[in-house]
């Protein structure tokens, strides 16, 4: 075939086609164009094939650069000469040209672009069958190191785009795999090239780029973090256009794209995160049932962004979170409550308070939406929720308590919660001191003060650590006496002597309040069981009145001046009717050091008591002695109707028994400390003796001779 071609094309033409001068090669190409026109007119297509074969084999694949250049311009001339009949020979022409795109010589690559440009102008849509190969070659040439080659490639690229947009033979299905593969390239020139093609193809009405968006969406988002501002802008513009199309399209594959958006929402690039969250926001509004299986993944992307450093991201993330939580879905639609709870549990460990708060809102929402389904996963989330009670944020702790309150509708969950709180306070006294009041008060609001205090008391009654039990009871007692949330509970306790519910509550609390003498006295003052309070004071021994006791007594005296005990102070206006109250208060006064502020406060208050003429007075004008002169009848009648309701004798025995346990515990502690000190001292002596026994005999100081007495 090559021999036939040599007879068709004169040798001089072939020599000029391989000349180093462009003009000679151009003139030779024009002669070849004329020869091919004559052959085409004569229908000599076999000879034309022979000429193409000669140009391809002996020229475009030649080791000589000028031969390759000549071969390329020659193939373009053949195509021009064939005009409308060129399509049937493209199979021979195009591969030879495309292979030259990768030539080592930049001038050869340039002439390859020029040749294909001229070929494309002639055949137009007929070369669409080679589009993927041409696109792949242009993709590589767009990043060519030679500026002239890049320029030529851009011209060719524009022509190919024009041809594709007007062609009805372009196959988007065959093109998308290649586009998806190229989207991972990082070269900025290639990225510009790819975005340009995506934009052009999307503008063609007959090409459904939106349907294939999931295949290259990740690549577009990847370009948002490019170092080139121009590329970021182009990618953002393309994404904005697609998002607008999604809003206007009834058929969109939200699922596949949601997976990509979720992944990109965790990007380290701020612009990428913002764009991802914006898309997710629109998807949540538009996706409906399609997004139900992806709720957990979307939530996992949204919650961290709620605490993003960028305000715009935080705003969109919060809006999206609210939209997502407001959507209605059930298990039959693929709603996986377990997966969502897993995400919420994970975000409880977030370092950001806002994220932890929103995670807790999800717990509450899911618990309301489907309690039975929620409780099915309780074993997995209960401990993390309990641990969250130690969160450094008050807002988080309050929300955790709300979740626990919803869970604690069943008794065993409620018991578990209170037991855990007591155990946590036992292990973390700082938490009890700083957060104890907040936690207990909030629980009382959510679950009912009486229910909460009864449960605390029941568990603390059998607490083995007596020191902690005393501390915990003192804390609960202080909350009881000071918190506005417990006003109803205090009102019920005031009726302990006349109301069965008040009596039952008093007895329940009394069992654990016995751990603290001052808490017991406070409880009696609340319940207006003044005679028993006086008996409790009288039962105190020397070892009971220590520094801790006096500190608690000081607090109580100051609390007596607060509105909580206003009723008690008003009762002092009738000393004849409330003689046991007076005796109790004087008993407390006698326990206080005279120089203390609490002593002065209480003494000042007692000085204002208007003693009745009916009280027997001694010859002394001392008002303190008057209360001690109460008749036996008055003592016996005081609180008489109330004592029938509560067996205070048994309560006093219960109190004394508990206090004896505390005394024994204190003695054991002191004994242990003494024993430990003795052991340490013994060890020190032993080490001292061992150290001195190792000193050599000669090194010791000589002993002084004994004095001889005659």
TrEMBL record:
PROSITE patterns assigned to the protein according to its UniProt record, in alphabetical order: HEAT_REPEAT (PS50077)
HEAT-type repeats, residues: 93-128
Coarse class of the protein's main subcellular location: membrane
Gene Ontology cellular component list: endosome membrane; PAS complex
Pfam families reported for this sequence: Vac14_Fab1_bd, Vac14_Fig4_bd
Biological process, per Gene Ontology: phosphatidylinositol biosynthetic process
Keyword match Membrane: yes
Occurrences of domain Vacuolar protein 14 C-terminal Fig4-binding (ranges): 431-609
Chain residue ranges for the region called Disordered: 690-710
Protein keywords: Membrane, Repeat
Keyword Membrane: yes
InterPro entries: ARM-like, ARM-type_fold, HEAT_type_2, Vac14, VAC14_Fig4p-bd
Cell compartment(s), UniProt: Endomembrane system
Similarity comment: Belongs to the VAC14 family.
Name of this chain's protein: Vacuolar protein 14 C-terminal Fig4-binding domain-containing protein
Source species: Brachypodium distachyon
């Amino acid at each position: 075939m090559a021999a036939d071609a040599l007879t068709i094309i004169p040798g001089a033409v072939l020599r000029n086609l391989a000349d180093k001068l462009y003009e000679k090669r151009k003139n030779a190409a024009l002669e070849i164009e004329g020869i091919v026109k004559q052959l085409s007119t004569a229908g000599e297509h076999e000879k034309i094939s022979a000429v193409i074969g000669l140009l391809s084999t002996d020229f475009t694949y030649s080791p000589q650069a000028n031969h390759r250049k000549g071969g390329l311009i020659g193939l373009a001339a053949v195509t021009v000469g064939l005009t409308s009949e060129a399509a049937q020979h493209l199979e021979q022409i195009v591969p030879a040209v495309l292979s030259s795109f990768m030539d080592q010589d930049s001038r050869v690559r340039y002439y390859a672009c020029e040749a294909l440009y001229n070929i494309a102008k002639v055949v137009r849509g007929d070369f669409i069958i080679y589009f993927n190969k041409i696109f792949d070659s242009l993709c590589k040439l767009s990043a060519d190191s030679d500026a002239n080659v890049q320029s030529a490639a851009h011209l060719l690229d524009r022509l190919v785009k024009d041809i594709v947009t007007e062609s009805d033979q372009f196959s988007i299905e065959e093109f998308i795999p290649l586009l998806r593969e190229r989207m991972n390239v990082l070269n900025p020139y290639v990225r510009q090239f790819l975005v340009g093609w995506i934009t052009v193809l999307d503008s063609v009405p007959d090409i459904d780029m939106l349907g294939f968006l999931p295949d290259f969406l990740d690549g577009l988002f990847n370009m948002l973090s490019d170092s080139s501002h121009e590329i970021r802008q182009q990618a953002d513009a393309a994404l904005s256009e697609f998002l607008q199309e999604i809003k206007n399209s009834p058929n969109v594959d939200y699922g596949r794209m949601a997976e990509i958006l979720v992944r990109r929402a965790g990007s380290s690039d701020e612009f990428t995160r913002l764009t991802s969250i914006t898309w997710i926001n629109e998807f949540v509004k538009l996706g409906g049932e399609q997004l139900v299986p992806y709720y957990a993944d979307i939530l996992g992307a949204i919650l961290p962004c709620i605490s993003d450093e960028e305000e715009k991201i935080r705003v969109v993330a919060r809006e999206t979170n609210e939209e997502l939580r407001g959507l209605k879905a059930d298990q039959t639609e693929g709603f996986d409550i377990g997966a969502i709870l897993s995400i919420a549990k994970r975000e409880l460990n977030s370092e950001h308070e806002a994220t932890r708060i929103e995670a807790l809102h999800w717990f509450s929402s899911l618990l309301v939406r489907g309690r039975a389904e929620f409780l099915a996963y309780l074993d997995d989330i209960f401990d993390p929720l309990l641990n969250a009670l130690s969160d450094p944020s008050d807002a988080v702790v309050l929300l955790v308590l709300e979740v626990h309150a919803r869970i604690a509708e069943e008794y065993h969950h409620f018991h578990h919660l209170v037991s855990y709180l007591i155990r946590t306070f036992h292990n973390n006294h700082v938490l009890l001191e700083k957060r104890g009041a907040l936690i207990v008060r909030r629980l009382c609001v959510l679950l009912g003060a009486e229910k909460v205090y009864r449960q605390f008391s029941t568990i603390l009654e059998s607490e083995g650590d007596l020191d902690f039990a005393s501390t915990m009871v003192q804390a609960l007692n202080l909350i009881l006496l000071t918190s506005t949330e417990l006003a109803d509970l205090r009102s019920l306790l005031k009726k302990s002597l006349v109301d069965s519910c008040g009596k039952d509550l008093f007895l329940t609390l009394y069992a654990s309040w016995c751990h603290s003498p001052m808490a017991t006295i406070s409880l009696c003052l609340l319940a207006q069981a003044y005679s028993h309070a006086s008996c409790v004071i009288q039962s105190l021994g020397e070892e009971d009145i220590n520094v801790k006791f006096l500190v608690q007594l000081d607090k109580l005296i100051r609390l007596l001046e607060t509105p909580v005990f206003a009723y008690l102070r008003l009762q002092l206006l009738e000393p004849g009717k409330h003689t046991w109250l007076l005796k109790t208060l004087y008993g407390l006064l006698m326990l206080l050091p005279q120089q203390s502020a609490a002593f002065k406060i209480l003494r000042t208050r007692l000085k204002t008591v208007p003693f009745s003429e009916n009280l027997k007075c001694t010859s002394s004008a001392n008002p303190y002695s008057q209360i001690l002169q109460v008749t036996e009848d008055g003592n016996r009648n005081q609180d008489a109707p109330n004592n029938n309701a509560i067996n205070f004798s048994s309560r006093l025995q219960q109190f004394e028994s508990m206090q004896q346990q505390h005394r024994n515990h204190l003695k054991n502690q002191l004994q242990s400390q003494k024993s430990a000190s003795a052991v340490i001292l013994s060890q020190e002596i032993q080490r001292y003796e061992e150290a001195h026994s190792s000193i050599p005999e000669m090194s010791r100081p000589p002993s002084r001779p004994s004095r001889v007495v005659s």
